[in-house]
Amino acid sequence: MDVPRATAGLSLTYALELTMYLKFGTQMFSKLEQHFNSVERVVGYRKERAEPPHETAPDMDKALVAAAWPSKGAVAFEDVTLAYRPGLEPVLRGVSFSVAGGQKVGICGRTGSGKSTMFLALFRLVESQSGRILVDGQDISQIGLNRLRRSLGMIPQDAFLYSDTVRANVDPFGEADDAAVWRALEAVELKAVVSALSGGLDARVDEGGSNFSMGQRQLFCMARALLRGAPLLCMDEATASVDMETDDLIQRTVRTQFAHCTVLTIAHRLNTVMDSDKVIMMSGGKVEEAAAPAVLLERSDSSFKSLVMATGAKSFARLKKIASSASSDNLVGAAPSG
Prior knowledge:
By secondary structure, this protein is of the alpha/beta class. The protein is 44% helix and 16% strand. It is a multi-pass membrane protein.
């Protein structure tokens, strides 16, 4: 079939333009897909359950103020089951344990065992499906989020600092005077660091605290918790990304400055929980065992013992000695005088 030259030339011209239109169409489709991500998020937010009330009911609030809640920091989980979303498998499955006020408790377990989720439940970042959590005898589901979260101390794994002044990072609510802020910084050995900055407490902190080392950021979080004076402190693998010297400083500060507080520590380095009053071993979203470290290390079938033994014979002997020494000290401290 013979095609006229003019027709063939015109066809080739349009064919060359076709690739341009295909490229343009592909670009427009990609942009449409990107923009629909925003629509998907809006639809997702509409389906999300609203957060519980931030403020406590007036009558309950008056009762909490009168009782100086929380004063001891006692914690109790009673058959708590929790899933991140309806329809998903529970992350916590009937978790029950109790911690007396002032106790130091280590939480251990493999990745995905539910350790960090317990803290999410305690701060009500995720609501439990069943069971209840008590702090000093009060069901936290009846307490407004503002009062609850302001009453608890937290040292997260990833230390977060605001793009603001040093003072605002240590005292975000502006409730303490300069002397109290300096005392908190001195307790965590940051006073010299801040004093050397131009402006002292008014020195600027870069976004995320990038002008401070990882260890210093952890210590700022420690100072923040110390200034709050909360009777219950939660440490979520706070020593996972700091050097040994800073780790020792954090542990020393916990023993001295938080001696009368309840401290829950998710263990990253086993030595941080060997002198605890109790270790809670998590597995598959359940409490597998809970007892003093020295007691668990004497049990042949203990998962905690297996975890410690996996560090090596020399390390096991050293950690067991720490646990035994701490157990003896606790017995002496608990013995009645006279």
